[in-house]
Amino acid sequence: MPTASKEIVVSNKLGLHARPAMQFVDLANQFKSDITVNKLGEEPAEADGKSVMQMIILAATEGTKMRIDATGDDAGEAVTKLAELFDSKFGEDE
Amino acid sequence: MKLKEFIVSEAIVPQLKAADRNEAIRELVASLAVAGALPESAVDEVVAALIKREQNGSTGFGKGVAVPHVKHANVKKMAGTVGRSVEGLDFAALDHQPVYSIVLLLSPENQPQQHLQAMNIIFSNLQKDMFRRFLKQADTREAIVELLDEADQGKQ
Predict the structure, then answer these.
(1) Most buried residue, A37, B4, B6, B23, by most Cβ within 10 Å?
(2) What is the pTM for the complete model shown?
């Protein structure tokens, strides 16, 4: 099974609050691959990228390093698109 | 962070009178104002902001719970409360099921990290089947306070 992985940094000021978490999960659900998101650093934590509650529990603030892992036929595309979402700051201004 | 650091016990509503989402939000915000956690004059604006937030995307994330929340300039100190609906409310939840338990959170505008920590502890507990089951059944303010205390102590 293909796998893909990419590290990102939370760059929007408000962090991964409920709305971005939902945006992420909505996008993750468009892929067949299993998606997991790992919060890196001093308080590591793992979430199912298709669960809004688990994503919110990560409490990832601005500057937090994360890793997105995907396993499945569309893993490469999933990781690329999901990382772009972080880069876009989830459409927030700052 | 612990639930009791921001959940205002006196503002907990164990039996909501509200028959729909908007009424439930108003009832809980009004209860926070009565408890002194929010100025009376800010109630209308905060209720409107919470409803707008729900319209942009439901905070009914499934399994019978909803977490309406907003960051608002008129909120000086983070404050939350809990409401329980016996009949269940339509929150346009992601799983299309009625909502029986509501945790409502008001945060100041300029403290996103504190807000994320509060959401973290709320959802860490709401993820637990036992916590959700007990919360749905806790029919007095005292029972809900006790449940929150136990959750803070890691007993669930």
Answers:
(1) A37
(2) 0.90
Choose, from A14, A15, A17, A54, the residue flagged as catalytic.
A17
Asked if A58 and A39 count as a contact pair (C-beta separation under 8 A), the reply is: yes
User: pLDDT tens across A36-63, in order?
Assistant: 999 999 889 999 999 999 999 999 999 9
Do strands A65-71 and B65-66 pair parallel, antiparallel, or not at all (unpaired)? unpaired
User: Residue A80 and residue A67: Cα distance in Å, rounded?
Assistant: 12
Distance CA B24, CA B28 (A): 6
* CB-CB contact of A67 with A13 (8 Å): no
Q: Which residues, 6+ apart, have CB-to-CB distance to A56 below 8 Å?
A: A16, A17, A18, A21, B119, B120, B123
Give the number of beta-carbon pairs within 8 Å between A and B.
Answer: 45
Partner B contacted by A54 (CB < 8 A): yes
- Any B CB within 8 A of A13 CB: yes
Residue with tokens 């979430």: A47
DSSP designation for B63? T
Check CB contact under 8 Å for B115 and A17: yes
Taking an 8 Å cut-off on Cβ atoms, the answer to whether B59 and A18 are in contact is: yes
